[in-house]
Specification:
This protein has seven helices and seven strands; from the N terminus they run ααββααβαββββαα. The chain has about 180 residues and is α+β, with helices and mostly antiparallel strands. Bound molecules: zinc ion (ZN) (2 copies). One zinc ion binds near residues 130 and 153.
């Protein structure tokens, strides 16, 4: 079963349950089923390249995502204002510098459930949840249960979660060290 048909199935199951609770003669609601099947808005991260100002934005298009990230143009009050193209007010200048990156993995995911570890998973830098230093996948940072953990802060318990094989190797090494002392 594809995820869409599964969603549709769950939605219709929910609708049946709701109908069962209605008084006899009440009309059957049909519209909510169509609504539930509608795919979530595409997810983007929008911010300045190389800066730590990226925000999660849901929008249908890249342009819409960048627009949502910016404050509205302030140039209308200017008598020379010729429209947002070429306008040099702060929001318009910021808009020209923003990049928007599509993050399909986060579509339909509540923003509150997206942790620092998830940012690592999409190739971004993140702040280690334990030592507050910057880390990234290429700096051997890991996503431990949704939280970013840098190389130095990784414990055996963390390795058990992200790479049990490596955890076993570390345990074997520690046992060897202990045997040789
Ligand atoms: Zn402007
Ligand atoms: Zn750390």
């Amino acid at each position: 079963m594809t995820s869409v048909s599964r969603r549709a199935f769950l939605a219709s199951a929910g609708a049946v349950a709701a109908v069962a609770g209605l008084p006899a003669g009440a009309s059957v609601p049909v519209a909510p089923i169509a609504k539930a099947v509608k795919p979530p808005l595409p997810t983007w991260i929008v911010g300045t390249p190389g800066e730590w100002d990226h925000e999660i934005i849901r929008a249908a298009t890249r342009e819409a995502a960048v627009l949502l990230r910016c404050d509205e143009c302030e140039g209308e009050d200017d008598e020379d204002f010729a429209g947002p193209d070429g306008c040099e007010c702060e929001p318009c200048l910021a808009r020209g510098n923003y990049e928007a990156t599509r993050v399909t993995q986060w579509d339909g995911r509540p923003e509150a459930s997206i942790g620092s570890g998830d940012w690592l998973d999409i190739g971004s830098e993140a702040i280690c949840s334990r030592c507050d230093y910057e880390t990234a996948k290429e700096m051997c940072g890991h996503n431990v249960a949704g939280k970013a953990v840098c190389e130095d802060c990784m414990t055996l318990a963390d390795w058990d979660i992200v790479d049990p094989e490596h955890a076993a190797e570390l345990r074997a090494e520690m046992a060897e060290d202990e045997a040789s002392t």
